[in-house]
Automatic annotation (TrEMBL):
Keyword Ubl conjugation annotated: no
GO biological process, one term: rRNA base methylation
Protein's UniProt keywords contain rRNA processing: yes
Pfam families: tRNA_U5-meth_tr
Protein's name in the database: 23S rRNA (Uracil(747)-C(5))-methyltransferase RlmC
Active site: 370 (nucleophile), 370
Family, per entry: Belongs to the class I-like SAM-binding methyltransferase superfamily. RNA M5U methyltransferase family.
Swiss-Prot/TrEMBL keywords: 4Fe-4S, Iron, Iron-sulfur, Metal-binding, Methyltransferase, rRNA processing, S-adenosyl-L-methionine, Transferase
Gene Ontology terms, MF aspect: 4 iron, 4 sulfur cluster binding; metal ion binding; rRNA (uridine-C5-)-methyltransferase activity
Transmembrane domains' residue ranges: none
Binding site for S-adenosyl-L-methionine: 237, 266, 287, 343
Organism of origin: Xylanimonas oleitrophica
Length: 411
């Protein structure tokens, strides 16, 4: 894949852009195998590796996380770029790089940025200014003017959009409400528009307060057979096609094991739990974000209402908001399920939950990891749970990142 931003030195996010795609995938599989081999010892040879799930090379990203710079009249949506020092009297500054035509975005997402930029102008949303005041040299001393920090856009498989504006205060909300009818006309595929208020000048992307401005509150992500409803402040995998393949693989392995009960820890909007639900199976999803749990509940209700088969499959499904480790540690021995799915953030499940899984009565663990380094560390704490199957899923082409799914069986 070629990218004119990369060629011009404006953006280096795609660190593997110059590596042929088949080589990227082969290198990733070699990377994860090399990390696991020292942990597993001779048992590594017994792991059955299924062929990697490849992605399309471009146009796969279902979300744009844009930093907003520039001015009200000419907002720039993209990333911060360091301007050459010679350009600046102050010696250091951030200027925006327009990435609205980034080739990782599908055309529908790229096309949305035009009307969204115009919304910023119409609603007089001053981009938040990270430029240092004259004579100062670090972002810490930034002038801290302006209102709009980030624009976050997620696209569903049906081409609908969930748009979030991360702002510094509630001050622009009334103006956004006023211009919403215009935006709905200019962007007919807009499903949800919401404002996230992040008053602090810090690296955290978003704040706690979310104000949804549209009547619709969720973006339906229609995957094979299961529609996941996405509310703002809920995680969804970056690459919808590969996410669908991930859930398909999980269902295949779970159905082989056919557990009567399972937990989906770090369940997000319930992707694994809802796909793996079956009549007579008790499924519990645990997730720290209350908004994500609310999303999972919407999907569960919709599937249950759609058909008698759906109602049967959903009868044993429940979701709760909470910390995954605390939930596991508090469980009575009789409540421990036959299979536990874990899909933690990059930091992994950590030693405490890994040690709990090791000592628990769970016969199987299905571990979906976006960071094989922490997966390998976690496995060190679970010597009785051995990977029997594994599969690399290339969720993030053009970068070193990938997802790996592995089925662990108690020895
Ligand atoms: C990689 S995402 C996986 C989401 C989901 N399994 C999916 O398929 O989309 C990790 C999730 O863990 C959640 N999370 C982070 N820390 C957590 C914790 N301590 N306990 C439970 N969930 C947590 C995040 O909010 C996020 O939804």
């Amino acid at each position: 894949m070629r990218c004119h931003h990369y060629d011009a030195g404006r953006c280096h996010s795609c660190t593997l852009l110059e590596v042929a795609y088949p080589t990227q995938v082969a290198d990733k599989e070699r990377h994860v195998r090399e990390l696991l081999e020292p942990v597993l010892g001779p048992a590594a040879a017994a792991v059955e590796w299924l062929p990697p799930v490849e992605s399309v090379e471009g146009g796969f990203r279902n979300k744009g996380k844009m930093v907003v710079t520039g001015t009200v009249e000419a907002p720039v949506l993209g990333i911060l770029g360091a301007q050459p020092m010679a350009d600046m009297e102050s010696g250091f500054a951030h200027a925006g790089v327009d990435l609205t035509d980034c080739p990782l975005y599908p055309p529908i997402l790229q096309a949305a940025f035009g009307p969204l930029g115009e919304l910023i102008t119409r609603a007089r949303l001053q981009p938040y200014d990270l430029t240092p005041a004259r004579g100062r040299v670090t972002p810490r001393d930034a002038a801290r003017r302006g209102e709009l920090k980030h624009l976050l856009v997620t696209m569903s498989p049906d081409g609908e959009l969930l748009v979030r504006l991360v702002v510094r205060s509630q001050e622009p909300v009334a103006r956004l409400r006023k211009h919403l009818p215009w935006l709905q006309e200019a962007l007919p595929n807009l499903a949800v528009l919401s404002v996230n208020v992040q008053p602090e000048h810090k690296a955290v992307l978003e704040g706690d307060l979310e104000i949804v401005l549209t009547e619709r509150q969720t973006l339906p992500m229609r995957l094979d057979g299961v529609t996941l409803h996405l509310r703002p402040q809920s995680f969804f995998q970056t690459n919808t096609e590969v996410a669908a393949a991930l859930y398909r693989q999980a269902v295949a392995w779970v159905d082989e094991v056919a557990p009567a009960s399972l937990w989906d820890l770090y369940c997000g909007v319930g992707g694994f739990a809802l796909h793996c639900a079956a009549p007579g199976r008790q499924v519990t999803g645990i997730e720290i974000s209350a908004e994500a749990v609310a999303s999972a509940e919407v999907s569960r209700g919709e599937i249950a209402a759609a058909s008698p088969a759906g109602a049967d499959a959903m009868a044993g499904v429940r979701f709760a908001a909470g910390d995954a480790t605390a939930f596991a540690l508090a469980a009575a021995p009789d409540d421990v399920p036959e299979l536990v799915i874990v899909n933690p953030p990059r930091r992994g499940v950590g030693p405490e939950l890994a040690a709990w899984l090791e000592a628990s009565g769970a016969r199987h663990v299905l571990y979906s990891s976006c960071n094989a380094v922490t997966l390998a560390k976690d496995l060190e704490h679970m010597p009785s749970l051995r990977p029997v199957r594994a599969r690399l899923l290339d969720m993030f082409p053009q970068t070193r990142h990938y997802e790996v799914l592995t089925l662990l069986e108690r020895v």
